[in-house]
Design goal:
The structure holds two protein chains of two kinds. Chain A is of the alpha+beta class. In chain A, 26% of the residues lie in helices and 41% in strands. Chain A is built from ten helices and 14 strands. In chain A, strands 6-7-8-9-10-12-13-14 form an eight-stranded antiparallel beta barrel. A three-stranded mixed beta sheet of chain A has the order 1-2-3. Chain B is mostly helical. Helix content of chain B is 63%, strand content 6%. Chain B contains nine helices and three strands; from the N terminus they run ααααβαααααββ. In chain B, β2 and β3 form a beta hairpin. The longest helix of chain B is centred in the first third of the chain and has 22 residues. The N and C termini of chain B lie far apart (38 Å). The chains are: A alpha+beta, B mainly alpha. Chains A and B meet through α1, α2 and β11 of A and α2, α3, β1 and α7 of B. β11 of chain A pairs antiparallel with β1 of chain B.
Chain lengths: 454, 187
């Protein structure tokens, strides 16, 4: 059905108010054109700054995690050469070399963990072989020794053709001043030692050994990382503030339900007890919308039978009809399951207590969240309103909150552990875009954890 | 509205004098359409600027062989208004306790008896979601599919919003002696 008359009326040209003349509007229009053209150019690169920000944050997050993992691996490689790093040396004293060689005490191993063996085959006198099962590159060893020169007095000369292998356990790291024969091997027999020392002396290089008694310093802590994967359940509270009566209606009609979450977390232990952690978590928050309304309306009933009149003498009956009002009660129930999905990046500082295989920890920090999806029904402006990707009542997608967690771990092996975690987060920002509604939700989560230290 | 090919050609070359001619010719018509969609005067002014900026920027796409300039301008205006309302998040999709039933459009004949001022008053009092779908469909000729894409709502939602709009009009308008009297507001 065409409504040309209506269309014509609603499109009748209207006299422009004075403030809308060309002279008043020209500047604004040209400015808008310039802005739009700029946006068009910019849109090529920044089609959606919010999405770009989220992607950048995620990439940054993963990059930091990857970098930290790389750092740990690098440290482990460095730790594979404890002898040179941990052996302070003094100036050359040939006499002391002999006395040390004859001394039984100095031939004893300062620590069982140190099992390096240095031998020099007769056929290659200029070679100093440090035999271990795992080989490493010559370049790496040279760098390593040069670095130790900066910090200590020269250790010993190493010929260019040496080969280095290593398979010993590396921790705990041990510091001790090493005498002449210790440089060669703590396990070697005297016969072997002589055969090793001789070619070294023949090179007339300054090999200096301390005269002090060996000291053992055990370093008990080394900064390390832990990667945790967790999954569990959550419950949340919409926390509607008392802004309007609609808040009350919402609070009554909406019931929070159990949801779930999955997370990956990286912890950095910079102290035996203290650690910092960050990661990425996915959460689905559920709640149910219930609404029931009973409405009574009066319906007009035309020519309704309202009575029968009976003539008691003749027995004739007459139907009495008239218009009347009838009350009709209508009842309507609406029930809907609502969903919010979040991606969160927590940043926490924590403290851990250890007892045998158990570790109890607590952490506190902030959480940055991105709501990727909201879908459901709620109460707005005295009506039931539907919200989804297209109709965003919860328009404000970015959130900042505070969170705290308590975690109990049980160590399974040197590296692996399992645990449980209870956490609580409180968002500081209002999620709702409606002026009459204010919601700063909080969530409580319970998770089980599988972790690996490295 | 008489816009010559020469004016359009000059406009394509970013001639500000041509911009002025087009503005002065089309602005009263554009303003009438904007006034239907938006109720705040300040918002109307901003929208007028936005619409003309859009017209001048996309005038190279106007093809006189495909249609007249006036409907093309009307289309841009309605489109910008709808996008603006959508982005302002005022287009809330709501449903009341009553079931949605397709409303007979005969009741719109009541509106044709009204003058422009009464129509404006009626539209201003109509809930924004109803008004937008009503104007897009009945006045500006958008189909429900087009409305759903423009407002990013479901086709069924567009239909139900229109049904409610018509019902709202019928409920709020009472004709007595050929004059419309508004009685109460609200769905």
């Amino acid at each position: 059905m065409e409504h040309n008359e209506l269309r014509k009326k609603l499109r009748e040209e209207l006299p422009l108010p004075n403030e809308l003349g060309w002279e008043q509007m020209q500047e604004g229009i040209l400015e808008q054109m310039a802005t739009a053209e700029q946006d068009r150019r910019g849109a090529f690169f920044f089609f959606n700054w919010k999405k770009l920000l989220v992607v950048s944050l995620l990439i940054l997050n993963f990059s930091i995690m990857a970098y930290l993992i790389h750092l740990v691996q690098e440290k482990e490689e460095l730790g594979a050469f404890p002898v040179a790093v941990e052996q302070p040396l003094s100036s050359h004293d040939p006499k002391s070399e002999e006395s040390i060689l004859e001394s039984k005490t100095n031939t004893e191993s300062p620590n069982k963990n140190l099992t390096n063996k240095i031998t020099t085959p007769k056929s290659t006198e200029n070679q100093l072989l440090i035999n271990k099962n795992t080989s490493t590159s010559l370049r790496f060893l040279n760098n390593f020794i040069e670095r130790s020169y900066d910090e200590e007095v020269m250790l010993y000369d190493v010929s260019e053709q040496r080969t280095v292998t290593n398979n010993s356990p590396l921790y705990p790291t041990i510091k001790y001043p090493i005498p002449t024969n210790k440089l060669v091997s703590q396990n070697a027999a005297f016969a072997t030692l002589n055969s090793i020392i001789h070619p070294i002396e023949s090179q007339k290089k300054a090999i200096v050994f301390p005269t002090a008694n060996p000291k053992i310093e055990v370093i008990t802590f080394k900064p390390h990382y832990a990667l945790e994967l967790s999954g569990g359940m959550n419950n949340w509270n919409t926390n509607y503030d008392e802004v309007s009566t609609e808040q009350n209606i919402r609070s009554v009609n909406e019931t929070e339900l159990t949801g779930y979450q999955l997370a990956a977390n990286l912890k950095y232990y910079f102290n035996p007890n203290w650690y910092a952690s960050t990661g990425l978590a996915f959460q689905q928050l559920n709640h149910r919308f219930n609404y029931e309304n009973i409405k009574t309306e009066q319906v007009e009933e035309r020519d309704a039978l309202v009575g029968i009149a009976i003539n008691s003498i003749s027995g004739d009956s007459t139907f009495i009809r008239q218009d009347r009002s009838v009350d009709v009660t209508q009842k309507r129930s609406v029930q809907h399951y609502n969903q919010h999905q979040l991606l969160s990046i927590p940043v926490h500082l924590g403290y851990e207590w250890n007892y045998k295989r158990l570790a109890l920890s607590g952490n506190l920090g902030g959480v940055f969240s991105v709501r990727s999806f909201s879908k459901g029904k709620t109460w707005v402006d005295s009506e039931i309103a539907t919200y989804d990707r297209e109709n965003q009542i919860y328009k404000k997608r970015f959130g900042l909150g505070v969170s705290a967690q308590v975690q109990l771990n049980y160590t399974l092996t040197n590296n692996f552990y399992i645990g449980g975690n209870i956490g609580h987060s409180n968002w500081l920002q209002n999620w709702s875009a409606e002026p009459t509604i204010r919601s700063r939700p909080s969530t409580t989560q319970i998770s089980i954890i599988l972790g690996r230290k490295f | 509205m008489n816009i010559t090919k020469d004016i359009i050609a000059r406009c394509k070359q970013k001639d500000e004098a041509a911009y002025k001619v087009i503005y002065q010719t089309c602005a009263p018509y554009v303003y009438a359409i904007i006034k239907n969609y938006l109720s705040e005067q300040e918002e109307r002014k901003d929208m007028l600027q936005e619409v003309f900026a859009q017209i001048f920027l996309s005038i190279h796409r106007f093809d006189a062989k495909k249609g007249n300039f006036k409907p093309w301008v009307a289309k841009i205006t309605a489109n910008r208004c709808a996008v603006h309302l959508r982005s302002r998040n005022h287009l809330r999709v709501v449903f009341s306790m009553e079931e949605v039933v397709e409303e007979p459009r005969e009741s719109l004949a009541l509106l044709e008896q009204l003058n422009r001022a009464d129509l404006e008053e009626l539209l201003t009092s109509m809930p924004e979601g109803y008004r937008t779908v009503f104007l897009l469909n009945i006045i500006d000729g958008y189909t429900h599919e087009e409305i759903s894409q423009l407002l990013k709502i479901k086709v069924q939602t567009s239909r139900s919003q229109l049904a409610r709009a018509i019902k709202w009009i019928r409920r709020n308008a009472n004709i007595q002696s050929g004059l419309l009297k508004l009685i109460g507001y609200g769905a």
